[in-house]
Automatic annotation (TrEMBL), chain A:
It comes from Thermodesulfovibrio yellowstonii (strain ATCC 51303 / DSM 11347 / YP87). It holds the Pfam family ABC_tran. Signal peptide: none annotated. GO terms for cellular component: plasma membrane. It comes from the Bacteria. This is Nod factor export ATP-binding protein I. One of its GO terms (biological process) is transmembrane transport.
From TrEMBL, chain B:
The keyword Transmembrane helix applies. It is a multi-pass membrane protein. Residues 23-249 form the ABC transmembrane type-2 domain. One of its GO terms (molecular function) is ABC-type transporter activity. The lineage of its organism: Bacteria, Pseudomonadati, Nitrospirota, Thermodesulfovibrionia, Thermodesulfovibrionales. It is found in: Cell membrane; Membrane. The chain crosses the membrane at residues 20-43, 55-74, 115-132, 138-162, 169-189, 224-246. Belongs to the ABC-2 integral membrane protein family. This is Transport permease protein. It comes from Thermodesulfovibrio yellowstonii.
Amino acid sequence: MDVVVGKNLTKYYKKFKALDSANFEIKEGECFGFLGPNGAGKTTIMGMIYGFITLSEGEIKIFGIKIDEKTLPKLKRRIGVIPQDNNLDPDLNVLENLIVYARYFDISKNEAIRRAKELLKFVKLEEWSKINVRKLSGGMQRKLIFARGLINDPDIIILDEPTTGLDPRSRRQIWDKIEVLKHSGKTLILTTHYMEEAEKLCDRLAIMDKGKILIIDTPQNLSIKFGGNLEHVYLNMTEG
Amino acid sequence: MDFKRAFRVWQRNATVYKKLYRSSLTLNFFEPMLYLIALGYGLGGFIKEINGMTYIEFIAPGIIMSSAMFAACYECTYGTYVRMVYQKTFDAILATPITFNELILGELLWGATKSLIYGTVIILVISLFGLVKSSYVVFLIPLILMCGLIFASLSLIATAIVPGIDSFNYFYTLILTPLFLFSGIFFPLEDMPEIVIKLSQANPLMHLVNISRAFCYGKIPYSFIYDLIVIVIYLFVLAPFPFILLKKRYVL
């Protein structure tokens, strides 16, 4: 079953066409990646899926329901967003950040505490729960954002450049967590500009450049079709 | 629009405030006290009386409203701007089931709540000074809330249109300070030139101060109905603009 379908997605910022009739179908339980250089339109698609950016043309269906102002709040209960920016609450500690976020989903306090503790264990931050988030390192903040995106036990998880700017060790830890989510049957949507990340994690990939989806296929097929490794495909298809 | 979800936004701000209130409550409370003491006792020593009141009695009810006004304004200018631009709290919230209008309603109600907190604290303090003579003063609580909603709306409009955080100086210097000084808090406006009297009719703070003074001393003239009508009109006329203008600024 297709859980997310984008049809003819187009976005103009004033006259600039940031996204040009993008079409894609994301299947239940797969990890679907949008790979492309900065400014390719990846984040615009992500923003459209969680209703943050309006569509100039086209439509998005999630679980078969067209997203609009009315359907969005309900659909978002089933979506977890792990943004690329750090937007934690700097005045709150680690645990409070999760609990405040859980409230937006109407999760009761006891349940929120239970889930928060479980998630902190999952990302190995349980010993930091009373620490103000300002005191965490960049990698730890990213792990907390990761945990926060899972607080509503989402069916679809959006990961917007989940490892950009991380040191190799933290990156590997985040990758391991993404693997765990994959095996739990969640649908993952990921953007990245790292070939290695796309190849390692994604079942299928959309390669993007200048607001267009150039091709959608599995990483293996892409390598076979164009010869060489994925990096070779990417560098040939996208202009520097 | 779902009020419960707007309440979640309010709750988030309340949670953060609960952690930080000790420093901000004393600071916000210090300024009105300075006015009350410096002007009430200092300047008051040179002024015999105004409309049968000592000078400090004359200004105290107005200070309740101006404190409430500034509390909502600080919250919904600097506070909201930091949440929207620097901390990206808006981004975080909008990734959840909360919609943009619910987010703004939450901000608006939180701004009004700050008015309620600071206005009430000032009432308590001036009661300790013996400056509250009537139990009608409890009716000021809903009035403070209306004051909060009006100035929270006005401030959110400013937040929607400023190019950067420094531009709030214009809002404070060119709008709020004149409203504050020409609100009848510090001197009766009746003796001012015709033009000042006419302009002050458009000042919502003046109407709030009129009612506040009447209720603090239990002498309530019929003209209070007129003041109340003007306040309610301001409330409803301003209310849609924060939603429209912030959406225009924020949603791509």
